[in-house]
Each structure stands twice: as C-alpha cells, then as structure tokens.
Amino acid sequence: xxxxxxxxxxxxxxxxxxxxxxxxxxxxxxxxxTLDIHDISRVARTYNAxxxxxxxxxxxxxxxxxxxINHWTKGYGASYNPDRKEAIELVQLxxxxxxxxxxxxxxxxxxxxxIATDASESTGKIIGFxxxxxxxxxxxxxxxxxxxxxGLHRQVLxxxxxxxxxxxxxxxxxxxxxxxxxxxxxxxxxxx
Amino acid sequence: xxxxxxxxxxxxxxxxxxxxxxxxxxxxxxxxxTLDIHDISRVARTYNAxxxxxxxxxxxxxxxxxxxINHWTKGYGASYNPDRKEAIELVQLxxxxxxxxxxxxxxxxxxxxxIATDASESTGKIIGFxxxxxxxxxxxxxxxxxxxxxGLHRQVLxxxxxxxxxxxxxxxxxxxxxxxxxxxxxxxxxxx
Lengths: 192, 192
Fold this sequence. Notes:
The structure is a homodimer. By secondary structure, chain A is α/β, with parallel strands linked by helices. The first copy, chain A, is 41% helix and 19% strand. Chain A contains eight helices and nine strands. Chain A has helices at 34-46, 59-73, 76-80, 82-88, 97-108, 129-136, 154-159, 178-190; strands at residues 10-16, 20-21, 27-28, 51-55, 91-94, 113-117, 126-127, 141-147, 162-164. Chain A has a seven-stranded parallel beta sheet with strand order 5-4-1-8-6-9-7, with helices on both faces. In chain A, helix 6 (129-136) crosses helix 8 (178-190). The radius of gyration of chain A is 16 Å and the shape is globular. The termini of chain A are close together. In chain A, 45% of the residues are buried. Mean pLDDT of chain A is 94; it is low at 1-5. Chain A binds chain B through residues 1-6, 9, 35, 38-39, 42-43, 45-48, 83-84, 86-87, 121, 165-177, 179-184, 186-188, 190-191, and chain B through 1-6, 9, 35, 38-39, 42-43, 45-48, 83-84, 86-87, 121, 165-177, 179-184, 186-188, 190-191.
C-alpha cells in the first residue's frame, strides 16, 4: 500500500488569494473558501507536505482562517474529528507569497524553489510533471502554489522559478476546481 | 498536451448519498453538497465521462440538484459560465445505484461493470489501479462510484463487481474529501 517514504521531502503548499484575477481580469484579493482549507489541507497531509499556507493580505479573511484553525485544532472539532485536526494543523497564514517564502526560509535555512500552477500555458518557465517531481523529491524546500478565482496574476507566474504544465485528461477541457487540481497535482508529483 | 483520445471509453461516475454511514455507523441518506456537483462534474468532464449520477432517493434533494442543473445549463449560469455548463450537463439524477445501472443499461444496451471506491480495504473484491484502468479503457460501460458522509454501506461494497484499492500518498493518512478522491482516482485511471 505505502510504496515510498520520501522522508526527506520538504514540500510546502500555498493557496494564493492575492494577486489573482476576477472574471474580467481585474486584479483582486479573493475571499477565502473554507472548504478549500479543509480539502487542500487533507491533500497536503496525505502527500506529506510540511505546511499549507493560506495566502491573503486581508485581515478579516485571516481572522476567518484562524477561526477555522482554532475550531479544528483546539476547539470542539479537535475531539470530534481527530483526522481533520491532523490536516488543519498544517495550515499557516501568510500575508503574501514573499511572506510564505520567508517563513520557509527561516525554518529551512534556505529559500524554497517556487513552482506556480496555472490552467493555461501562457506565461513563465513551464515544466512538466516529471521534472517537477524530480525537484520535489530532491529534499530541497519547494513551495508549490495555486491561484484562486480566475487564476494567478501574470507577474506571479513570471517571477516563479517554474510554472507547472496544466492538467489534461483525454479531452481539451481544463476547468477543474482548485481543490481538484491541487489533489491531482500532489498525487502526480508525490503519489507514486 | 493531450496524449490520449480514449474515444471508446464508456465511463460513468456516481456519487452515492444512500445507503451510506454516518459517524456512528448508522445507515443514512446524506444531504447533497452542491460543491460536490460542481467539482466532480468538472472532473468527470475533464476525464471524458459520459454522465455523472447524483444518487439519492430523497425528493427534496433531487429538487435541489435539479435546480443547480437548471441554473447552470439553462438559467443565468449557462451564459455567465459556459465551461461550467459543459460540466453540469453531465449531471443526471438516479434514485438508487440500481436505477443508475438501469439508466446505463438502457443507453448502452448492456449493464455496466460496477467499481466501488472506499477509503478502507475491508470488504468486497479489491482491485488495484492498474487492473481498474484496464477495465475502464476497454470500451465497455463502467460505473465508478463514490460514497458520501462516512462511506458506502458494506452491502454496496459486497455487491459491486470490484472495489478499488484506497488512495495512499507516502503517508498512512487516507482521509481525503470525496471531491479530492474522485479527482485523483479519475486522473489515475484515465489521466495518463
């Protein structure tokens, strides 16, 4: 069942709420979706990530995230559902991508390799899943991050070390939810 | 990017709301989560499924699902977000697993092979992802289905033709949301 240990892996996951686009390609700070916290933290826990950063500069949104964290790690939820606790314990807040990178640097002593994800293939240094997998299992800190709303700002993609190729099945359709995309990507990178 | 056509595939996806367990292992009919409809229909569309059955005997829950279908395929949502329309068009209602199988049989002329999914490995005829993949790409009708709440009733697992092995990453943790599990499983079976 468990085929790999990958105990050296220093994988961090981020969910970016700013800067992202809305439907009209205005740059916005998106609202946090609490189900993203639950679904992606469980994916992060399954694939042995060190932390899952919720990235937002908005203080009311950070308060919301902190309330979710408290409920499931210290409040009633912690005893009601210990599996959920184990996942939510990975959640950390960051004001910005820079802040997330700095938190990783302070912990690991070295800045992470930053891998952005995007459903298009238009901007940045695109890499395939095989190459990304090689980077992730190397044992160096890696931050893989996902956009919300209509996707990561172009500048974020340009500044990332790499942009992961989009997910395709046997069709041209690539409009997955970020929850589904994060699950598939972590599985492709770490799952086998 | 698109590496396979798999045009012969006759894959159907189901989300079962009855009979499933609650936290105390009572048999219940779970409530429909609208986000499941959105996330899993997009996964189904990505991986070229023919239909995505929401399986529930409860008439109020069926009405809710029908409202979501109407909004995104005929109402304002259809013009607001055509990609969502394309996914939600796959959604169909079924009263029971038997009903879903019968709908497939009427359409395809033959009953589907039924593959259940479960996070444990305790009941039924367990198969691995490789074997399941072989079945799915054979061009015969296949219904792969997922439980909600605390999982599919034991009898459903026993009656299925196969039960797919659980998803593991490099850890022992296997408490994914059904949205994440469906995404990973379809990707493992059809994505590459």
